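ok trying this again, last paste got cut off
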Amino acid sequence: VMLYVKDMHDFYRESLEIEEVSVRNREIILSLGEVNYGIYVVDLYSGVMHTVRMPDDVGYMRERAYWEWEEALERAVQKYFHPNCREKVQKAFSLEALREAWENKEKKREMLCQRLIGGEYHFVSVTAYIHDKGKDDCFVVMAFQDVDKETRREIERNRSMMRMAAVLRAGYNKMTMVE
């Protein structure tokens, strides 16, 4: 009888540990969701994608709980991504490319591109976080973040610096001619 009680105690302890991890994972997903408008989990073994959070404009994805990653990526890239970015996104985040990244022990792959949001192209950061839990349990968390405001500010700051450098160079040339 004591052995049975001990086994139940171990089972109860393990179940509490699993619940603790589950709560922590939910907190992580919620915090990611605050900055990322789209979060997807792709199983690299099966190629199946599970949606954690999706933007409102991809309502068609609500039709099914699970999608084949290749099909979902193809549809999204063709419908929402800027024509200049489509091929690069397809190559970098295809199932084959993600599996290759996993085999090469990459932990993260990211790209800045443009995506249609609210009728305008926005700069978005597409990030693949590659997780390795063993040969049959490897997955990627795909996170999509709207970084348009920050990117446009950075572009404008770089342009201002380039203009300032051009003015300084022109002034320096005039100063050397006067001497």
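PB: full thing came through this time. The mean pLDDT is 81.
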